[in-house]
Amino acid sequence: QVQLVESGGGSVQAGGSLRLSCAASGYIYKRPCMGWFRQAPGKEREGVAVIDSDGTTYYADSVKGRFTISEDHAKNTVYLQMNSLKPEDTAMYYCAADGLKWCDAVTVVTYRYQGQGTQVAVSS
Fold this sequence. Notes:
Blueprint lengths: L2 E5 L2 E4 L4 E8 L7 E7 L6 E6 L5 E3 L7 E6 L4 E6 L8 E8 L14 E2 L3 E6 L1
């Protein structure tokens, strides 16, 4: 059974940084896409970043240059380093995974396996 557990959320001031972690357990797929999406109150889910099994990364335009997704295969963990945070980054952040031929930062919101989320709050 696949389980994704997020951690690292919290409250920061604008301009600050946070690093989210997603620990994966169980067999996902041989070559999974893994990534993050977020959802703010009253808004649609929004893809944030994805990394494929070759290490290629994909980002939403809203976070390019500020967020970095990475993966530690030995620990089965995916990270999201978030710098220069803005109040509009405030949301619940979810980890997601699926076995797809093509990965991207838009369809991550539909990935088969999703975690419970970790809250990020950025104050101005």
